[in-house]
Amino acid sequence: MLTITDLSFQYPRSQSLALQGLSLSIPTGSLFGLLGPNGSGKTTLISLMAGVLKVQKGSLVHSLPQTRLSLVPQEYAFYPRLSLQENLDFFGAVQGLGGRELSTRIVEALQTTGLESAARTRAEHCSGGMKRRLNIAIGLLNRPQLLFLDEPTVGIDPQSRHFILQSIRAINAQGCTVVYSSHYMEEIEMLCDRIAVLDRGQLLLEGGLEDLLAARGRGKLEELFLSVTHTGLRD
C-alpha cells in the first residue's frame, strides 16, 4: 500500500502550489490510473512518489526500498547514439547489476517490450514506438514492485500502443503495482481498476472506476472526467 496524506508541493519561484493537501491510497497489486488536465500536478505527484522530488509538506509512505521502485518518464531517458543493448548495459550497471544477472535482466526486459530483434540498433534510428518501449525496458531492469509510467504511449502508432498496453497488463499480473498516467481515456478504461483525477493540484475523485461511473451516472470515463474538470481549454 502506498499512502499519501495531506501532500503539498511548491516549485521554487512559483506563485502557486503544484499540489495542495492531497491524500490518497494506492493498493498493493493495483493498476492505478492517474488523470488530469495539463498542469494538474500529475507529473509532480509521480516524481514525489518515485523519490525524484523530496516531500515538502505532508507524508508519503510505502514499505518498499527505493531499489524496487521504477519511474518511466514521459521524456525519452536514454542515449540516442547508443544501441538498445548498450543503453540497457549502461543503465543496468548504474543500478549495480553486472555479469550473468545483468544479462538475464536485459533478456527479460527485451522480451517483455518486444525489442529482442532490435537490440543492436542505435536508439536514434528507432521508431517512436520502439523508443517508448526502450524507455519501459530500462525501467524494468530492477524488476520493480512499484512502477510509475508517465504518458508512456504519447505519439506512437496503434500497433505499438496495443503492444505496450498488453505488456503493462502482463507486468501487473506478475504482482507489480503500476501507477499509470495518461491523457488517453480509453487506455485508462482498458487497464485500470482504480483511478484518481487531479486538477490544479487537488484531488477531485478517487476510487474504483466502475463505482465512480455508477455513482456519477456516467457511462464513459471521458464524460466523468469532463464533468469534474469542465470543458474549458487549458494551456
Structure description:
The protein has two domains: 1-64 and 145-157 and 167-230, Rossmann fold (3-Layer(aba) Sandwich), CATH 3.40.50.300; 78-143, no CATH class. The protein has 235 residues and is α/β, with parallel strands linked by helices. It has helices spanning 42-49, 84-94, 99-113, 128-139, 158-173, 185-191, 209-216, 221-229, and strands spanning 2-9, 19-26, 31-35, 57-61, 69-72, 146-150, 177-181, 194-199, 202-208. Helices cover 37% and strands 23% of the residues. A hairpin with a 2-residue loop joins β8 and β9 (202-208). The strands form two sheets. The protein has a six-stranded mixed β-sheet with strand order 5-6-7-3-8-9, with helices on both faces.
Task: Write a brief caption for the model.
The chain is of the alpha/beta class. It contains eight helices and nine strands.
Number of E-type strands: 9
- Please give the order of strands in the largest beta sheet: 5-6-7-3-8-9
Q: Class of the largest domain in CATH?
A: Alpha Beta
Amino- and carboxy-terminal Cα gap: 34 Å
- What amount of the residues lies in strands? 15-25%
- Taken together, the total number of domains comes to 2
Q: Low-confidence parts lasting 5 or more residues at pLDDT below 50?
A: none
Class of secondary structure makeup: alpha/beta
CATH architecture of the largest domain: 3-Layer(aba) Sandwich
Shape: globular
Element string (H = helix, E = strand)? EEEHEEHHHEHEHEEHH
Oligomer: single chain
Total helical elements: 8
CATH topology of the largest domain: Rossmann fold
- As a percent range, the share of helical residues equals 25-40%
| Biggest sheet descriptor | 6 strands, mixed
What does the radius of gyration come to? Answer: 18 Å
What do we call the CATH homologous superfamily of the largest domain? P-loop containing nucleotide triphosphate hydrolases
Can you give the mean pLDDT? 92
